[in-house]
Amino acid sequence: MKVRRALLSVSDKTGIVEFAQGLARLGVELYSTGGTQKALEEAGVPVKSVSQLTGFPEILAGRVKTLHPKVAGGILARRNVPEDLAQLAEHGILPIDLVAVNLYPFAQTIAKSGVTIDEACEQIDIGGPTMVRAAAKNWRHVAVVVNPARYPEILAKLEKGSLDEDLTLALAQEAFSHTASYDMLIAGYLAKQAAPSVQYPQKLFLEYEKVCDLRYGENPHQQAAFYRETNPEPLSLAQAQQLHGKELSFNNINDANGAISLLAEFAEPTAVAVKHTNPCGVAAGKNIYEAYLAAYNADPVSIFGGIVALNRPVDAATAEELSKIFLEIVIAPEFSPEAMAILTKKKNLRLLALPALAGNEKQDFSIYSSDLKKVAGGLLLQEQDTIDLVEDKLQVVTKKAPTDAEWEELRFAWKVVKHVKSNAIVLAKDLATVGVGAGQMNRIDAARIAIAAAGEKAEGSVLASDAFFPFPDVVEEASRAGISAIIQPGGSIRDEESIKLADERGIAMVFTGIRHFKH
After folding, report:
1. What are the residue ranges spanned by the domains of the chain?
2. Which residue in the list 137, 157, 192, 400 is annotated as catalytic?
3. Which of 129, 125, 169, 167 lies closest to 150 in space, CA to CA?
4. Those residues with Cβ within 8 angstroms of residue 91's Cβ, 6 or more apart along the chain or in another chain
């Protein structure tokens, strides 16, 4: 396909001057509008206004510039249909062979604090999508460019003579993705303005941008890719900067997300070790060095090949400890130069910097407004489970109440158990996990696994359960292990049996009134 005439009208002016200069050198006749025309003229690029093409001025303060038959007809005419060409000649319409258009910055506008709906609506492009869709529809005869990164490739092709249909079809697909994304963003924004209290609209629009293809998915025979939201929040893994190590895998990303979500529960210096999406070691300390050592000692076996997330910068002492074992990833707000020198000796260890993890207060992980689960032929949506203990719902149901020290341990264990796959049991002592039972089909097995993992450390620990006890068997196992206090939601029709046994064994038990299933 030859290009003799092009229309350039872009909001994102990245590379447009160089692109226009290249087209002009090839003898392409250029037309443009508004700010794009001004930028080209200032660069000395020969360009004509769209008004010269249409014979009609811009009106309504620039709202109407390209909505004209001489623009639409020039783009939509099929070069292999004699009747189309005859009508162009009859009406004095010039064929347009290339359209470089990207749309008004609606996303950037609504991201601004305090923007009004009227200000947002002014950034709804009308003429741009019309030209883009028209050119994409006529891709066999017109090239449409919405992505500035394509400019060098197109110039290189034109310098060799023409554009091939494989390229113009790919450009058309990009163009329709561009307008679809734009319309979804507008529809979503207006839905929130029209019905702000409606959390789940009748039609759901989701947009994600591909970050990269992955080597494979959960297993080598599965293809996979990583996508991110258009404007990911600071705590999102999509905002992390990889400082070192080989590329991330599907499982790495999934596990790291779980580590971040758990770490966000804590304000104090805390270390989280994750293996197969479940925490295997969590600990708080006076500093990040102490926190990491305690998290490591919680389960020195399971942490091997796992992911460690820290909510304080990594110093040299902590880096030395981290370097002693095989880890897949270390995530932290930052790494000191000394820490980097130590950890980068391991060429495959991924080091991720996520500044939003720093801070002395609990982070807001509710940035992900909905939790999505794909099922065959459909999609499940729910609110993120961001609730912590609700003081008014807490109820000491045994004769013995927890001591102040036990309350601190119970609150710690409750934060952790929320992030363990159901059925979940967590044992904690000295603000560190000592045993985790995850993902079991019954609660007693989860308790036995956690107690077995804790061994002697179970003596004097506290136990957290993500859901109620249907039978008193967990209390029986806790008593044998020397566990001193239990926190669980309550709500079973057989609660009295568990309460009675706890009283007999001298165990304090607290009901939260909140369940934390995680499937």
Report:
1. 5-194, 208-357, 391-511
2. 137
3. 167
4. 69, 70, 73
Query: What is the predicted pLDDT for the residue at 367?
Result: 44
The C-alpha atoms of residue 261 and residue 270 are separated, in whole angstroms, by 13
pLDDT tens per residue, range 14-36? 999 999 999 999 999 999 998 89
Q: Which residues contact 170 (CB under 8 A, 6 or more apart)?
A: none
The domain 208-357 is classified under which CATH number: 3.30.420.40, 3.40.50.170, 3.40.140.20, 3.40.50.20? 3.40.140.20
CB of 518 closer than 8 Å to CB of 422: yes
User: Per the CATH hierarchy, to which homologous superfamily does domain 391-511 belong?
Assistant: AICAR transformylase, duplication domain (3.40.140.20)
As given in the structure block, the two tokens for residue 186 are 């507008």
| Average pLDDT estimate for 44-48 | 95
Q: What is the pLDDT of residue 196?
A: 79
Q: Which CATH number describes the domain made up of 5-194?
A: 3.40.50.1380
DSSP class of 457: G
Q: Is 276 a catalytic residue?
A: yes
Which is catalytic among the residues 13, 157, 276, 400? 276
Q: Which two tokens stand for residue 329?
A: 């990833």
* Tens-digit pLDDT profile for residues 274-309: 999 999 999 999 999 999 999 999 999 999 999 999
Stated pTM of the model: 0.82
| Region 388-396 average pLDDT | 92
Clarify whether 137 is annotated catalytic. yes
